[in-house]
């Protein structure tokens, strides 16, 4: 099951995609150095995945700061376009998980609840 994109095709989404050239702006935040793309993910919106049967790539507009990728959609939507970046679903997912793990490791205070 695919998670809903944080932002649909809103004016902010279009502005972000225009700036990004409709290409994923991940430069390794997801943990993949993207060497094939010259240090930047080479997935483009409406492009096809490199693997056969991978389907069409649909880029997401989401916070550029990995620490903010976990924001609820309505808060992410309130961010100015300048703080958003284009992410392909793979990079978005991996970056968000990496950031969530880092935040969890940094926040040990939750243990006090148990
Ligand atoms: Zn990507
Ligand atoms: Zn990436």
Structure, explained:
This protein has 114 residues and is an alpha+beta fold. It is 28% helix and 7% strand. It is built from three helices and two strands; from the N terminus they run H-E-H-E-H. It is globular. The mean pLDDT is 84. Bound molecules: zinc ion (2 copies).
Shape: globular
Based on secondary structure, the structural category is alpha+beta
Distinct small molecules: zinc ion
For the secondary structure, the number of strands is 2
> Averaging pLDDT over every residue, what do you get?
84
- What distance separates the N and C termini? 32 Å
Q: What's the alpha carbon Rg, rounded to whole Å?
A: 15 Å
Biggest sheet architecture: 2 strands, antiparallel
Strand order of the largest sheet: 1-2
Tally of individual helices: 3
What proportion of the residues is helical, as a percent range?
25-40%
Quick summary:
With 114 residues, this protein is an alpha+beta fold. It is 28% helix and 7% strand.
Helix and strand arrangement:
Layout: H1 11-20, E1 60-63, H2 73-76, E2 84-87, H3 89-106
Bound molecules: zinc ion (ZN) (2 copies).
Keyword list:
114 residues, globular, 2 strands, binds zinc ion, alpha+beta, two-stranded antiparallel sheet
